[in-house]
Amino acid sequence: MPAILAIRDLRKSYANGFEALKGVTLDIEEGEILALLGPNGAGKTTLISTICGIIIPSSGTVTVGGHDTIEDYRAARSLIGLVPQEINLEPFETVWNTVRFSRGLFGKSRNDALLEDILRKLSLWEKRKSRIMELSGGMKRRVLIAKALSHEPRILFLDEPTAGVDVELRKDMWTIVAELKASGVTIILTTHYIEEAEAIADRIGVIADGALLLVEEKENLMTRMGQKQLEVQLTTPISVVPEQLAHYDLQLVNGGDALVYTYDTRGERTGITGLLNDVAQAGLALADVQTRQSSLEDIFVDLVSGDAP
C-alpha cells in the first residue's frame, strides 16, 4: 500500500541563505501516529506548513493521497486537517458558525450531526452559541481542533496542540486521537511534552537544524538506543568508589548511599553479575537493587546534542 503522505528531498531556503529544511524525505502510512520531536527552531512548523501549502518549498515534492501539493493543491489540502500553534479565530463569530464555515470551505455538504458530535467530544456543545471572544484560551484551542476535524480529514496535523492548555483538554485530546486512529486517520503530532509522544505514538521522528535525524518505530528506537541503569543501594554510605570497582565507571549518588551502573541493553553481557560479585568482594553490603530504563526524553536529548551512538 502506498504511503498516504510521501515527502521527497524537501528543502526550504530563504533569501538571506537560511536553510529551514534540508532535504527531508519521509513516508507516512495511513492510520499511524507519528510524533515529530525537535528543539525550538528545528523546522517542525516549517515542515508542517510546507506540507499544508502555507509555505512554498524551494525544491522537493510532497504528495498527499497521491495528490501533489503544488500541482493538485486543492485535492491534497482537502485531505488534511491542521491544528496550528497560533490561535487565529474570528472573535465576533460563534463557535457553531466558525466550525460550520470551516467545513463549508472544503466543499463538504452540511452535516450538523457530525459537527454536534465533534463539539460534544471537545466539551464545546454548551458553548456553541458563544462568541469566540467570550471563550477562555483553552476553549479557543478546542475550537481550533473542531475546525480541523470538521471536514473529516484523512490526515490530521497537531502542531503543539496542548501547549499551555489545561489537563482536562489534554486528556480529551488524546481520547479523540485514539478514536481517530481507530477510524484510520493518520496523525502527525509535534509536542514539547515528550511523555505524550512516548505514550501514544507508533513512530518517532527527530528533527534538528532543518534535517530529519531519524524516523523509527518507537519500541525499536527505545530498544536500540535505550540504556538501563542499575542502582545499587548500600546499607552504609561510602565517600569514594573502591579501587576494585573503578573499571565499572560507577557514579556515587545520594550522598554515598548508592552506586549507579549504566549498561547497554544490546550487549551480549550486561556485566551486572560481575559487578554484584565485585561489590560483595569489596566489602560493601547491599540494601536494595533497582533498574531504570532510558526514557524517550533521554534519547531525544542525546540525539539533538549529538551524543547518541
For this structure, the CATH topology of the largest domain is Rossmann fold
Name given to the CATH homologous superfamily of the largest domain: P-loop containing nucleotide triphosphate hydrolases
- What Rg do the Cα atoms give? 24 Å
- Sheet/helix structural class: alpha/beta
Number of helices: 10
Q: Give the SSE string.
A: EEEHEEHEHHHEHEHEEHEEEHEH
Instruction: Classify the beta-strand content into a percent band.
Output: 25-35%
Strand order of the largest sheet: 6-7-8-3-9-10
Q: Class of the largest domain in CATH?
A: Alpha Beta
If you average the pLDDT, what whole number results? 87
Q: Which percent bin holds the helix content?
A: 25-40%
Give the count of structural domains.
2
Instruction: State the major sheet.
Output: 6 strands, mixed
CATH architecture of the largest domain: 3-Layer(aba) Sandwich
Q: How far do the termini sit from each other?
A: 33 Å
Global shape: elongated
Q: Looking at the chains present, what oligomeric state does this protein adopt?
A: single chain
DSSP summary, beta strand count: 14
Low-confidence stretches: none
